[in-house]
Amino acid sequence: HRRRLNWEPSLGRLRWPNGSEATLFSGDNADGLRGPEHDFAWFLTFEVVGDESPTTGTILADVSHGLISANAEQELTGYAAYGQSIHAAIEPVIDCFGIELFDDGSALRSPLSGVAELVDDNVLGNSADNEKASRVRREQTPARSLPATLRLRYYDQARDFQTGEARARAGEQSGSEKQLEIPAALSADDAKSLAEQMLTREWARRDRLRLSLPPRFLDLAPGARLEVPLSPGRWFVEQSTIDGLAVRVDLRPVSASAAALSADAGRIVANRDEVAGAVSIALLDVPALSPNSPTLLLAASSPTPAWKRSRVDLSVVGQNMSVRTAPRKSVLGSAATILVAADPSQIDLTNSIDVLLIDANQWLTSCDDGALAAGANLALIGRELVQFADVTPLGSGRFRLGRLLRGRVGTGSEVSSHVVGEVFCLIETGSVQQIVLPIASIGTEVAAQMPGSDTVSLTVSPRASAIASPSGGATIDAEARASIDQILTTMRQHGQIGI
User: Fold this and answer.
1) Contact, 20 vs 38, CB < 8 A?
2) How far is CA 182 from CA 59, 171, 193, 200, 202, in A?
3) Would you state the pLDDT for residue 177?
4) What one-character DSSP code corresponds to residue 164?
5) Among 392, 398, 401, 377, which Cα is nearest to 209's?
6) 3-state DSSP call for residue 441?
7) Under a CB-based contact definition with an 8 Å cutoff, are residues 374 and 491 in contact?
8) Residue 327: its pLDDT value, please?
9) 312 vs 54, 98, 429, CA distance in Å?
10) What percent of the chain has pLDDT over 90?
11) Which of 375, 318, 316 is nearest to 498 (CA)?
12) In angstroms, rounded to a whole number, what is the distance separating the alpha carbons of residues 111 and 228?
């Protein structure tokens, strides 16, 4: 009636002069239809008919106009390829299904297939011009930087293709939450399995391996499979570089497929329970780390991935107290060989020690001299604090440690007191729990026990005003004390100790 309507675009609402209202909705925000009530509505709908049971490989080939040739046979009920570019349209498929592609100069293709090539232990450590090369260089992404929970949004075919969500969780691991979305029609079972596979792949590929190989490996190309005498054994070549007649290859582990899981459409089903293994605890006493008051360190580990903080009961000078284990599992184990005595003032290049970790899935990594100076790889072996630069994995949770800094932080008097089976523990923030004891506990026995497990105990060492010297005396000179104080300060700044 020649009266102007009032349009409110931020609310998607039209107002008439007589007070009537109309609300407009778009398929761009389908969830906006939840909740509002109407007297009547007009709908404009359409349907798209797609290929019957397309595979991920077919989708990638179609969307890229044949520029991608992938051996990916995962069937989907449907997939909505949309976005501002071809990259945006296919990225969810590649990320969610972990499809590996390599540029062969004319197209993006799947990695090379076939039997994995065996790499013997005696061919490792090759280099050009007789330069020294590490036999194995292995790095591992810290667990705290990996996702502990993964949420996957998808189109649930059992709910008329409304948005559904599947969730996977990495046991009791601490970490961030990662959210992904794939515009694919999936069943609840397939979505749950896919979420588990994605999280498994994230954790399996935290490892990175670099090998230096002889000239017979010159034809190694990205995507090739190698069988390496390590754990895990199967790796794929991510990058290959030729240096003289030496071949340096960067490898990532080949992740195993997760088992098929069941889930309910419309509901998030909890992950299956992980049975926690027996927990081993150890009491550690390093007087040099707490010269002014008796402070013990409580370390705890288990052979299974599942982990949660547990109560530990202590008996101290006739009193009982309870503490909890650290938030993260300790890198705890034992010495499999004897560490021979050496001069604490020199880098020990002669001796090495084999350690066996309780959790075979944990990993020790090498570091350079700069990292050593910053306090990296500090560990307690028996009663001696050492730092290690070279790590050689021997399989099944066993590692050989070399290039050692001995008698760290005033523990030089302990360099000759080592035995087979003594405790090994990596000193890391968040993986060992500090226990401050009363002064009266010095010289007495402290016992610790988890419910249902054996008791461990130790006698609290004296905290005299002096720190033990390398010669075993009761005092040290001012220069040595200043050096120790500097080491302690550096360790505190880099989070090695929190005292």
Assistant:
1) no
2) 13, 24, 14, 18, 17
3) 85
4) E
5) 392
6) helix
7) no
8) 85
9) 55, 42, 19
10) 14
11) 375
12) 18
Residues of the chain with pLDDT under 50: 465-479, 496-499
Q: CA angle, 148 as apex, 143 and 151 as ends, to 5°? A: 145
Q: Which amino acid, one-letter code, is at 261?
A: L
Q: Is 324 helix (H, G, I), strand (E, B) or coil?
A: strand
C-alpha–C-alpha distance, residues 261 and 100, integer Å: 24
Give the per-residue pLDDT at 83.
Answer: 79
In 3D space, the residue among 238, 358, 384, 383 whose CA is nearest the CA of residue 300 turns out to be: 358
- Give the pLDDT score at 34: 73
Q: Cα–Cα distance between 57 and 269 in angstroms, integer? A: 30
Global confidence as pTM? 0.49
CA 394 → CA 54, 64, 121, distances in Å? Answer: 45, 45, 11
Q: CB of 52 within 8 A of CB of 65?
A: no
Is 495:429 a contact under the CB 8 Å cutoff?
Answer: yes
Longest Cα–Cα distance of the chain, Å, equals 104
The edge-to-edge listing of strands for the beta sheet with 280-284 is 280-284, 295-301, 432-436
Token digits for 291?
A: 């010269």
- Both tokens assigned to 107: 């197209």
Q: What is the number of other CB atoms lying within 10 angstroms of the CB of residue 37?
A: 4
Tokens 């232990």, located at residue: 121
Separation between Cα atoms, residue 167 and residue 238, nearest integer Å: 29
Q: What is the pLDDT of residues 131-163, one digit of tens each?
A: 777 777 888 777 777 888 889 999 888 887 888
Give the separation between CA 66 and CA 86, rounded to whole angstroms: 12
What residue type is 236 in one-letter code?
A: F
Indicate the residue type of 314: L
C-alpha distances (whole Å) from 269 to each of 156, 166, 172 are 14, 8, 17
How confident is the model at residue 424, as a pLDDT?
A: 96
- Beta-strand ranges (E) seen in 341-383 are 347-348, 353-357, 378-381
Q: Which two tokens stand for residue 152?
A: 């996957």
Q: Measuring CA to CA, which residue among 308, 327, 322, 297 is closest to residue 450?
A: 322
